[in-house]
Amino acid sequence: MIKQIYSLIQYDESVKTMEAGADNIGLVPMQHGGVPAHRVPLDRVDKIFAEAKRRGVTSVAIMLTNDPEEMLQLAERIQPDILHIAGDGYAADAEFAKRLKKVAPHTELMQAVLVDGEGAIARAKSFAPFVDYILLDSGLAPDTGIGASGVTHDWNIDAKIVKEVNVPVIEAGGMGPDNVAEAIEKIRPYGVDSLTKTSIKYEGGNMEKDIPKVKAFCEAADAAAKKLGL
Ligand SMILES: O=C(O)c1ccccc1N[C@@H]1O[C@H](COP(=O)(O)O)[C@@H](O)[C@H]1O
Question: Where are the transmembrane segments (predicted)?
Answer without folding.
Answer: none
